[in-house]
Amino acid sequence: MFSFRHLFTLRQMAMQMGLRRSVQRLSSHTKWEQHSIHKCSNVRLLSTSEYEKLNEFKNTPEKPVSNTFLCITHILENTNKGGKEEAEKVFNDLVEGYQANDEKRNLKAVFDTLESVIVKGDVHWFKHLQILQTCKEFRGLLEKVFFSLSNYNEHDLLNLLTCQLTFRIYDKTREAKLWENVLPKSNKLNISGLIRLHHMSKNSKDNSLQNQIAKQIARRWMEIEKVNELISVMKIMILESKKSSEASVFDHLEEKALQKAETLNLEEITQVLFALRASGRRNLPLIKSLAYCMKKKMSDDFPLKSTASVFTSISKLNFHDAALLGLLSDHAVMKVNGVQEKKEAVNFLSIILMSCAHLRWFPPNLEKTIQSHFEEFPDHLNPVHLCLAICNVSKLHSFSESEKEVVRNMVAKLEEKGIEKSHPVVWLNLALALGWNDCSVDWVLSSVLKQDFVDNIQKNFPTMVSVLRQLDYEASFAFPNFQGPRLDLGGQKPERTNTKQDSLVTDVIDITHVLDKQMDESVQTRIMTSQGHEIDALVLVGNDKRVVPFSSSGSNFHKVAIKVLKFQDMIQPGVVPTSESRMWVRHMQSLGYKLVVIPYNEWKSLPGNNSKMMYLEKKITESIS
């Protein structure tokens, strides 16, 4: 029940604003829920249309404040947190806190009132907070707390700062003052408190503030014991680890993660892998340990989002564990088939597909799932992601006739959206990935190999000119009378590749040298053609199927290009050449070369040098037959 003092105050306000009948209705015995409070548009504290005027109360102390009990009751009713009884309790606690001279009690009253009255997730929470800030007692509490900042300890200040950044109970000037009081005492916080403080500093535009807190965390990494703290610090140190002064901190964090690997759950393993990927650190012992634990702990309730994240992380870290990839692939297929929302399934499939293309991993069950959703890609992916998805599918999978028609329609829609102008490199990579077939020939000629597009690439993306040369040459081979665009070759000539020495390639080259005694003249190694094709070894072979020196004259000699297909050139687990490898074969054949392609698995299975030499001789003989 209202006291007579409350009723008298309300009647006075109503008489001044011409709302006697509205206030009389509030004083009746009608239940509180039945009053149409929102219709009383002239009652300032309850009105939605007059809500903007509430800001005046906060900044103008001399104006009369609203009735605190009525404010609290209204907010609780709107947020379904209670009625008059609950409001009375909150009001009494607020008044007691306001009247107390104890600084701790003042601060606790602020926290308790906000916790009891404001619902952060409610759509009107900010409006409710503005209403609460018009109340004399609550506003007085905020003033008392602010003027006592220097007397609070580090934990109280941290909680108050959390409250400020959550509800914005003070203005920006006072928030800055609060930071000034927190920072000098931050060295007394434990590691968990420092992590909270760093998280809150992200709301500040002052980068030096974040760096200052990050350095404190870096100095006290040895205090980390809890797994959640370890993961949080790893995320904080991601950017710091790129600086030489903080790289050692990440070393220690990785060591701690390795020690605690057995205690990590699946989601924590995902987060550690993400931190490694984001920092670009390939700690193989840690990655292998995390992979082992993931294989042991994998469960059906592991989310699809986390599965896609793990795929991305291990692909960025270039980590290939067939057992783990198989497990993740099976789990992804199961989760995708169980997802009701098509957009969610397609988005995560596109992420997993990109990782598979990078790892050259495409098991049959995942391939089948991708095929079943392929036609839905344009409906749920933006143009750039759709281009990338088509590229990735092409790298791992040979399109059927029906799929070629789908791709043709996708490309037509992408052309309508002007993707070749907004993202020319993506458009060029799509042309290269699809190669020269009946689903791409028309648009490659009309949209890629045209002068304005070529000029744009040569001017702004010179590193992509080699791709243009490959497409242009294939077009001229397919159409003898093709008049392509003018390409600026920049005086490029055949040259030796700068590829890092590979033991597998070196072994093949050594065996190739043994085929003829005149090593220097009979074998050319690690060369690059003017069209941008890399050749591991090149030999000249006569009709008698023997290797001869390059100085030999005559027209009955064949240039045999030898290419080693390494692990990254094959799609696992079926050990099938990638689309890039198939394109290399196609282009080199069009240039008139005879080809010897050596898959890494076949070469490694040969027992000795004699077997390898016989294998190579047989391959060369077959290439010119």
UniProtKB/TrEMBL annotation:
Pfam families: RAP. Residues 560-618 form the RAP domain. PROSITE patterns: RAP. This is RAP domain-containing protein.
